[in-house]
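Sample pair:
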Amino acid sequence: MNTGNPHAPKEKTESTMSELLAGKTAVITGGAQGIGLAIARRFIAEGATVVLGDMNEDAITAAVAELGEDVALGVRCNVTVADDVAALLAAAVDRFGTLDILVNNAGITRDSTMRKMTEEQFDQVIDVHLKGTWLGMKLGADIMSQHGGGAIVNMSSISGKVGNFGQTNYSAAKAGIAAMSKAAAKEVASKGIRVNAIQPGLIRTAMTEAMPQEAWDSKMAEIPLRRAGEPDEIAKVAVFLACDLSSYMTGTVLEVTGGRHM
C-alpha cells in the first residue's frame, strides 16, 4: 500500500549543490533514522559535518557508515539525561571544533486515548520531546554563545497545532516545543543564536507507512497537495532555517504539511 509520490520534487544533482552550510557543524538528535537521518544527509550535501545522537546503536553504526566517517560521527544519547546531551554536544566540538547548528529532532510516540493512557506513557513522551528539546537548547546555546552564535531548529508537529485523537501526550509536547522555541528565541537572540521550529504534517516514514490504509486515506484526504511529504522535504526546510538564508528569522514555526490544517 501507499505507493511512492510521482509528484515529489526532483533531487538536485551533485554539481548544483550550493553548499549553504559549508564549514558548519551540526548536532542532530534522533539523527540515525527517519527524518533525522534525512536531515543529516541534506546537511552533508550542503557542506556540513554532522554528529548524530540516537539511542539505537545499530542505526548509528549504519548511518555513519552510509554518510562517511570523515563527515559524520555517531554518539549514543538519551536526550532526557543532561549528561548524555552534554556529552553529545561536547563530541561535536572535540571532533569538528565547533557547534554551529543544533536540530532537536528526537521523538517517540506512546499513543492511547486519554482514558487508557498511563502516567508512564504520558511522562515518556513529554520527557523525550519537551525536556529533551529544552536540554538541547539550554546546553547548546551555552556552547554556541562561546563560538559566535548559531542556529537551533526544533521539531514540533502539526499535532501541536490541531491536536490528534489518541495523542494528548504527543500533541501537548509538540505544542510546548512551538511555544518554548519562541521563548528561547527571545532569551538567546542577543548572543547571536536563532531558534526556529518546524511543524511537519504527514511525512512518509516507516512509522506512517505502517498505519492502516483507512487511517492513511483519511489523512491524505485532508491534504490539498494530495500527497504525503518526503523526509527530505523536511530536511530542506531545516537547511533553510540553519543557514544564512533565514538570517532575519527567529521564533518562527514553519508548517510543512502540504496545506493540511492551514
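The chain has one domain: 21-253.
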